[in-house]
From TrEMBL:
Belongs to the peptidase C14B family. It comes from Nitzschia inconspicua. Pfam families: Peptidase_C14. This is Caspase domain containing protein. GO terms for molecular function: cysteine-type endopeptidase activity.
Length: 356
């Protein structure tokens, strides 16, 4: 009886949390983070040692981005091979071969990707534990992972594939990173090859004066402006991919309303003069303006990135204990201070509105 009452109580909490989430986040947002909030991430001198299923740009890169792309490219190649064999069997009219191809490769799930990233990190002695969080509850092992839904129609009255890609190497800085631009170029190549994203719909910010002009340098001003304009461009029916490769930090919160009294933040290229970009600013500028029926997939390959988007539901292989019905949502943890975080966002938004 107590177990049933406890389950019903958790169900009510989840429904209330979901209602709050929908009030603040109209879009469906899924975030793959390189690590948990208290962790740092691995930079790899030679990503080819991971036996990637694609040819990467350069040799240096982030473990999170490389492993994310590895499992998706592998699935893509399986699907391509299946389609090829099916065409060949159809042309040859070979009944035995056709019967063997009756079942396509299994759909890739959110759990497939998360488990692969975690297992390879552990096998290579990387201490980071990749994390998945989202704006709506999902089933790790039943819901298929899709950057672009099967029913998506490109350039229809409602439907554009958009990407926001930010990579920062901090050249000539004491905290320079070597592989972030490589990661971004690998992500763009994947989006174009596998999902047919078009150059005109890809917004790229790199600290590379050859690839990007002054307006697309990843300064704090440019990043915040891009968050605002990018989210306002999105329309119902769009699919969005967001990728960040650079430094992430944890800064002491001005008021202790975070679980650990720290806020997560990104470091723009001019962080030494302009400061960091706080999670609350990412949320209010990038996520809140997104309209409903937009599917957002985000990949943040940086330190302290676990809750960088302040999403209400989290999944982690590090803690398989459920806060809800394990049969329905295995490995799901609810961010029960989500309402407090949203009050902080509203307070920040009101303050910014009063200044404008």
């Amino acid at each position: 009886m107590k177990e049933r009452a406890s389950k019903e109580s958790r169900s009510k909490i989840t429904k209330k949390l979901l209602a709050t989430a929908k009030d603040y986040i109209a879009a469906k947002v899924v975030l793959f983070s390189a690590c948990q909030d208290h962790q740092t991430t691995a930079g790899i001198d030679n990503v080819r040692k991971l036996c990637l299923s694609f040819v990467p740009e350069g040799t240096k890169g982030g473990a999170c981005t490389s492993l994310f792309l590895q499992v998706l490219y592998h699935n893509y190649k399986l699907q391509q091979e299946y389609n090829r064999r099916r065409r060949d069997s159809s042309d040859s009219n070979h009944e035995h071969l056709q019967s063997k191809l009756a079942h396509p490769p299994p759909s890739i799930t959110y759990g497939t990707i998360l488990n692969h990233m975690q297992q390879v990190c552990e096998r290579n002695n990387y201490t980071q534990i990749p994390l998945l969080s989202c704006s709506r509850p999902i089933h790790l092992y039943k819901d298929p992972f899709q950057i672009v839904p099967d029913n998506f129609v490109q350039k229809s009255p409602q439907g554009t594939k958009r990407a926001l890609i930010i990579g920062i190497t901090y050249t000539n800085s004491p905290h320079a990173l070597a592989g972030c631009q490589n990661d971004c170029r690998n992500v763009i190549a994947f989006l174009k090859k596998v999902h047919s994203f078009e150059d005109e719909d890809i917004t790229l910010l790199l600290d590379d004066p050859v690839a990007c002009d002054d307006l697309n340098q990843p300064t704090k001003k440019n990043i915040l402006r891009t968050f605002r304009t990018f989210s306002m461009q999105c329309q119902e029916g769009d699919v969005v991919f967001i990728h960040y490769a650079g430094h992430g930090i944890a800064v002491e919160a001005r008021s202790c309303d975070e679980p650990d009294c720290f806020q997560e933040a990104l470091l723009p290229v001019d962080y030494m003069t302009s400061g960091e970009i706080l999670d609350v600013d990412i949320f209010r500028l990038l996520l809140i303006p997104m309209p409903k029926n937009v599917l957002v997939t985000a990949l943040f390959d940086c330190c302290h990135s676990g809750t960088i988007l302040d999403l209400p539901f989290q999944y982690s292989g590090a803690n398989p204990v459920c806060d809800y019905d394990s049969v329905v949502f295995p490995h799901m943890q609810m961010v029960e201070d989500f309402r407090d975080r949203m009050r902080k966002v509203k307070k920040t938004q009101d303050l910014q509105d009063s200044k404008s």
